[in-house]
Amino acid sequence: MTTTVHRPHRDDVLIAVGGLLGGLLLWALGLDIHPEQGFEPRWLALLPLAAVSAAELLRRTMPNAALAIGCPMLAADQFTEGNIATIAMFTDLVYAAVLYGTPAAARRIPAVSMVATAAFTATVLVVYQQVEAVLLGLAFAVVTVAPAWTGVVVRTHRDAAEAARLRAEQTALLAEMDRTQAVTAERARMARELHDMVANHLSAIAIHSTAALSLDDPRTTRDALAVIRENSVDGLAEMRRLIGLLRDSGAEPAGSASTPTLAGVDALLAQARTSGAASGLEFTLTDTREESPPLPAPVELAAYRIIQESLTNALKHASPGTVAVALDQDGRMLTVGVTSPYGGDRPGPRAPGSGAGLIGMRERVALLDGAFESGPVTTADGAKIWRVRAELPLGEGSGKA
C-alpha cells in the first residue's frame, strides 16, 4: 500500500521562509516581546519560531496538524523572551485551519477560540486581580478569535463562489442539452416534412413511370407522362417552400397560407384517384365533423400529413378496392382514420417503401399527446384491411365548445 505525500504549496513555502527570516531578523535586532522576563538562554525563542515556521509548510495540505503543532509552540514561546513572528505565524495557522480544514473543523475552531479566550481572560483576572488583565484577553482574542472568524468569512465567500460556479456550469450543461434536443427535434421535424411532402409525389412518379415503361401503348404513356409532370411540378413547389422555410426561420408560421390544412384533403384524394386508377384503387372521404371553430394549426397539419402519408402507402401497397378516409370530431378530440385493402394480389406497378412514413406519423401524434395505431385487421365479413387511426387532442380554446 502506497502513501501519498503532499508537497507543500508554493505560497506556503514562501510564508514559512518569510516568517522564519523575519523572526530571525527581529531576534538578531533584539526586538523581543517580553525581554524584561529575562529568560535564558535567549536563543530558546528560536525553537518555537522554527517549529511554527515548519508548521506553515502544512497550512494548506494538513491544516489541522499544522494547528496542532502551533498551539503548544505558542505556549512554549511564552516561556522565552518571545518573538512577534511566532505569534503572527500562529494566527495564520488558525486562519488556515478554518479556511482549508474540514467543515467540522471550520465550525469548531471559532467556537473553541472564543471559549479559550474567555477562559484565559477569567484566569488572568483571578490570578492577577487587576482590570488590566482584560487587555491580555483582548490580545489573546486577536491571536485566536480574529483569525478564526476571518477564516469563516473567507471560507463562506469561497464556498458561495464555488457554488455559483457549479450552478453556472450546470446551467451551461442544461442549455447545451436543450440546444442538442432542440436541434434533434428540428431535424426530426424537417425529416417528417420532407418525407411527407415529397414521398407522395415521388411514389406517383415511380408508379406511372413504371407503367409507361412496361406498357407499349401511346395513350397510356401520354397519360403517365402527364401525371409524372404534374407530380414533378407539385413536388418541386413543395421543395421550394421547404427550402424557403429553412432559409427564413426554420419554422412554419401558424396560419400561413402555405401550411397544408384539411381543406386540401379533397385535392389529395383527387390526385390519389389519378395515380391509383391503374391499380384498381378507389378513394372515398367521410367527414362527420360538425361546423366548429378552426382547429389548432399543429393538429390540422398533423391530420393532413397523416392522411397524405396513408394515401401514399395505399398507392404503394394496397390491393384493388376502396381506400376510405374518415374524419370525426368529438368534443376536444379529432379522429383520423384511413383503411385500405390488404393482403391480395395487386395489378400494376408498385413503389418501394422504407417504413419512415409510419415512424413520422407516430412521431407527429406523440408530439400532440395523442394516440396512434396502424396495422392489419380483419373486418366482420372476413376481409383483411390495413387500418391507420390517429386521435389528436385539440387542446384548450379549440374545437367544439
Mind describing the biggest β-sheet?
5 strands, mixed
- pLDDT averaged over residues: 82
Task: Tell the overall outline.
Answer: rod-shaped
Number of strands: 5
**CATH topology call of the largest domain:** Heat Shock Protein 90
The low-pLDDT segments are 253-257, 397-401
> Could you state the CATH homologous superfamily of the largest domain?
Histidine kinase-like ATPase, C-terminal domain
Structural class: alpha+beta
CATH architecture of the largest domain: 2-Layer Sandwich
- Please tally the helical runs, counting DSSP H or I stretches of 4 or more residues: 11
Order of helices and strands: HHHHHHHHHEHEEHEE
Distance between the termini: 76 Å
Number of self-contained structural domains: 2
Please give the share of residues in helix: 55-70%
Q: How are strands sequenced across the largest beta sheet?
A: 1-2-3-5-4
Quick structural overview:
The chain is of the alpha+beta class and 401 residues long. 61% of the residues lie in helices and 11% in strands. It is built from eleven helices and five strands, in the order αααααααααβαββαββ.
Describe this structure in words.
It is a single chain. The chain has 11 helices and 5 strands, in the order αααααααααβαββαββ. It has 401 residues and is an alpha+beta fold. It folds into 2 domains: 10-168, no CATH class; 173-393, 2-Layer Sandwich (Heat Shock Protein 90), CATH 3.30.565. α7 (145-214) packs across α11 (356-367) and α10 packs antiparallel against α11 (356-367). Strands 1-2-3-5-4 form a 5-stranded mixed sheet, covered by helices on one side. It has helices at residues 10-29, 46-56, 63-77, 84-100, 103-128, 133-143, 145-214, 218-248, 265-276, 297-317, 356-367; strands at residues 281-287, 321-330, 333-341, 371-378, 384-393.
